[in-house]
Amino acid sequence: MARILRGDVRWADLNPVRGHEQAGLRPFLILSHDIFNERSGTVIAVALTSQPQQAGFPLTLELTTSNLPKQSWVKISQIRTLSVERIGKSIGRVSPEEIEQVVDGLNEILGA
Question: Could you tell me the pTM of the whole model?
Fold first, then answer.
């Protein structure tokens, strides 16, 4: 598999799940740094959706990156640590500025 890089948008296979967790093949934005992704066997990522969102920043962020196949929103509050074994094909990349906006949104939610 190609290296998993910060800013990648990739498919993640969330099955099997428990309880009310989101299931299936879902797009995720990789937030963790490249060296962490390479050495830890996990990535830190946030879920994406193609459904327009009612909640605004900091809960969601509309991506303006044009290389994604669909208009997408980052669900900033849907952060997960995923095994690299769950990570699949690349869908696209987001800009460093958008990564920083997502991190800013996380900091706002966490009160940092």
Answer: 0.92
- Whether 19 has a pLDDT exceeding 90, the answer reads no
CB atoms near residue 112 (< 10 Å): 8
- Nearest residue to 34 (alpha-carbon basis) of 9, 6, 8: 6
CATH of the domain at 98: 2.30.30.110
Q: Any residues with CB less than 8 A from the CB of 82 and at least 6 apart, and which?
A: 12, 28, 42, 43, 44, 45
What span, in angstroms and rounded, lies between the C-alpha atoms of 53 and 59? Answer: 9
Residue 93 corresponds to which amino acid? R
Tell me, yes or no, whether 39 lies in a domain: yes
- Does residue 1 lie in a domain region? no
Give tens-digit pLDDT for 43-81: 999 999 999 999 889 899 999 876 888 899 999 999 999
13 lies in which domain range? 8-110
